[in-house]
């Protein structure tokens, strides 16, 4: 076979799901087996990474708060360069590539460079973690709308979150541990009841998962008191009272108020 008959490179933006390898899509699993190189995030579960064959090159571009192994611009350049070299490149991202995964930025870079790119969706953390916790994000009696927001953002207090939480709504906050107290204060200042149930889901869908419930007014103290670690989701809304959870009732009256919402 001469070089002109070799298949051209292609970039695949693949969702790895929330952690449990059994939640990986079949298409994603097949792509991991056929890839030349896998460029993966730090949030991709070890069980998912174990599915990558030994001969496939791996590059970790793990990101942590205020510290990136590789800046996004350099990741974009890496993906384009390897694909233009004729490789089948899998960009493996925790959850879904298009929900707080910067998949849109990487797709833009691929399009600008003329690189063939396809997106393979994954189960986003909100859906996977809530399902494991027995927490319905929507419920005919409790919520007919769901909003996803990033809690780790600049100028949090200047953001307009009005209407995102409260009656008939569920608010899911990604990357909100470091700003949990500020988030609670902001929502309460915007008119959300301080007694609205909240759930914090730590390491959702994994064997080490933990689900903690309380009230919005207790959110910041809950995160500190229980030493909640990343990755974690914060869910605010009446549906949080339906979670199969370890209730953290450090604030007087929390138990009775949660029961009122059940």
From TrEMBL:
Keywords: Cobalamin biosynthesis, Methyltransferase, Porphyrin biosynthesis, S-adenosyl-L-methionine, Transferase. Pathway: Cofactor biosynthesis; adenosylcobalamin biosynthesis; precorrin-2 from uroporphyrinogen III: step 1/1; Porphyrin-containing compound metabolism; siroheme biosynthesis; precorrin-2 from uroporphyrinogen III: step 1/1. One of its GO terms (molecular function) is uroporphyrin-III C-methyltransferase activity. Pfam families: TP_methylase. SUPFAM superfamilies: Tetrapyrrole methylase. Residues 10-219 form the Tetrapyrrole methylase domain. One of its GO terms (biological process) is cobalamin biosynthetic process. InterPro entries: 4pyrrol_Mease, 4pyrrol_Methylase_sf, 4pyrrole_Mease_sub1, 4pyrrole_Mease_sub2, CobA/CysG_C, Siro_Cobalamin_biosynth, Uropor_MeTrfase_CS. Its EC number is 2.1.1.107. PROSITE patterns: SUMT_1, SUMT_2. Signal peptide: none annotated. Belongs to the precorrin methyltransferase family. This is uroporphyrinogen-III C-methyltransferase. It comes from Sphingopyxis witflariensis.
